[in-house]
Amino acid sequence: QVQLVESGGGLVQAGGSLRLSCAVSGSISRIYAMGWYRQAPGKQRELVAVLTSGGTTNYADSVKGRFTISRDNANKGYLQMNSLKPEDTAVYYCNADVWTTMDTRRGYWGQGTQVTVSS
User: Fold this and answer.
1) What is the pLDDT along the chain (119 residues), one digit of tens a residue?
2) C-alpha–C-alpha distance, residues 36 and 40, integer Å
3) Following CA atoms 60, 106, 53, 1 in sequence, which dihedral angle do they give, to the nearest 10 degrees?
4) What share of the chain is helix, strand, coil (3-state, %, to 5)?
5) Any residues with CB less than 8 A from the CB of 68 and at least 6 apart, and which?
6) CA dist 85 to 16, 68, 114, 115, Å?
7) Which residues contact 113 (CB under 8 A, 6 or more apart)?
8) pLDDT at res. 7
9) Beta-carbon count within 10 A of 24 CB
């Protein structure tokens, strides 16, 4: 089994910053891509940022220049969010593409962390 636990969400004023973390644990052989998604009330879940194992990043147009995705060598991913706007308010989910010790590969999701940006 593989578990993803997000942290770092909260309430912040517009223009502020937050740093989300995603800890991946369990039966991990290798983590390929890690990504962050978000879902606002009444809207579909959307991709915010993704980081491949090769170091390639991809961002939603709405967050380019404000958000930065990264990861460390300890199976932990991050999303640095600067210049936050009220429209960034959503539940943020971490996703990891994992090759497990059971020789299976699939995507796993965290439980989500709420980010609320007040105007």
Assistant:
1) 999 999 999 999 999 999 999 999 999 999 999 999 999 999 999 999 999 999 999 999 999 999 999 999 889 999 999 999 999 999 999 999 999 999 899 999 999 999 999 99
2) 14
3) 120
4) 5, 60, 35
5) 49, 79, 80, 82
6) 8, 15, 14, 11
7) 6, 7, 8, 9, 20, 91, 92
8) 96
9) 21
What token pair was written down for 19? Answer: 């740093």
pLDDT, residue 19, reads 98
Q: Which two tokens stand for residue 67?
A: 């958000």
Cα–Cα dist 119/114, whole Å: 16
Edge-to-edge order in the sheet of strand 76-81: 2-7, 18-26, 76-81, 67-71
For the chain, give the number of residues: 119
